[in-house]
Amino acid sequence: xxxxxxxxxxxxxxxxxxxxxxxxxxxxxxxxxxxxxxxxxxxxxxxxxxxxxxxxxxxxxxxxxxxxxxxxxxxxxxxxxxxxxxxxxxxxxxxxxx
Length: 98
Fold this sequence. Notes:
5-stranded antiparallel sheet, 3 helices
């Protein structure tokens, strides 16, 4: 199910940390749904420099663009998020540099 919300200022960005993948920021807009990962972080883990081109490969229900509030500066920053499924698909497809 695609999330339709475009602005998530009430949700703190959390950090997924893994020995292999490093750090990937994520938000959980609804506790009943899987987390949404910051696409730039997923691309960094996969060694991709062009997040825009990589995100274009995702289905519409696997991505959304939101404004996340940076907890330190309190400024809104536009980020593209990838659903848990979209991130998993990206890894299994082995997103390639375009």
